[in-house]
Model the fold of this input.
Amino acid sequence: MVAAVAPAPAIADGRFVHGSAGVGDPFFPRAGNGGYDVSHYRLALRYTPAGNRLRATAAIKAVATEGLSRFDLDLRGLRVSSVSVDADPADFRRRGQELLVTPRRPLPGGEPFKVRVRYRGSPRPVIDPDGSKDGWIPTNDGAFVADEPQGAPTWFPCDDHPTDKATYEFRVTVPAGVVAVANGKLKYRIRGRRHTTFVWREGSPMATYLATATIGRFEVSRSRADGSPSYVAVAPARTAAAAPVLAKLPAILRLWGRKFGDYPFAATGAIVDHAPSVGYALETQTRPLFDTVPDQATLAHELAHQWFGDDVTPRRWRDIWLNEGFATWAEWYWAQHTGGRSTGAVFDALYAVGRGDTAFWNPPPADPGKPENLFDGTIYERGGMALEALRQKVGAKVFFRILRDWVSMHRYGNASTRQFIDLAELDSGMDLRGFLRAWLYRPIQRGKPPLP
Ligand SMILES: [Zn+2]
Done:
């Protein structure tokens, strides 16, 4: 629900233009779209795991940010059967990951409009620049649905960039006995003889890459965790192994609430799937998603992302250390809190890595250089070290004030590395620019980043 910064429209058509095919993110030039801002997605999905068949309708509420004679949605694969705009049939075409929509009447700038897209097919994940896959990933009993950084369009048409946050409703119909778990609160279930429909609602603004509708034969437990309704779904073969780790969820949320500010969302929980081909976990909003039973560090990491990543989201993908550096530092802090090594000891051990180990030190966390490096180890570890160095430089009290102010200033919005450096200077009253720039932007050739 924050307007994307759209580059100048390419084709003018009187007062009306064609919305651009991307929002100008250098790492993913076609991600997101220009000319409008989505406020709500209502996704009705009917999924049959046998044969990986999806039949769906997406109803999207948006506001035109300029007069539009045409606009794009992002959609990968799948077959579109019809598109309407404000209830009138609209012309549409496909071009790569873009679905080009020409409404019958041009859309005036500043006016709300509704798009409805009917589509079906066999959803497939997208292979990312680093070789991993995301999006709709079929499993042996359903689908593991994780969308960072570009998987959302594998299962719904959208404005696929972190700067366009929206609220969501998911109505997911699956065969009886199968469970569909999305973000937010489970409003109700409709149980038929052969199918069940799960209706989920996420009422806080959410980036597309944090949406999920993970499906499988899960065992479900519902409770409260640190004041929030908690919905936990676990693959049956994993329940015994997952129980002791998931039992820590309320305590982790409580600690993060104390240190980072109140929990930002209306629900919590977790999804522990059995998806051995995936190889990662994701901080899907309100309900982190794990491909296997996580350890405590991973659970603490994904829960910390609810503040750093989900609530405050990078403005550009290159700023991803604002997610991963923070969640990595939080892992270290949870270990210290539970009697393990201190964050300072972790820092010292990592700082001892020789500067000749360029794969450890480079690329610098706030300048990954190219999309292949978005999730390099250095984004996590040197990013976490930058925060620990900051903590030691300004002291714990000021450090946590910076983190809490960061969250409250940018609640449900987007932010950049420059804004973080500005805030650190403001809250500490110190000149930190050279220090933080060395940690965040300087490639390591001759010397390591400065000690605090
Ligand atoms: Zn992470």
In short: Confidence is low (pLDDT under 50) at residues 1-6. The pocket of zinc ion is lined by residues 301, 305, 323-324, 327 (CB under 6 Å). The CA atoms of residues 168 and 329 lie 30 Å apart.
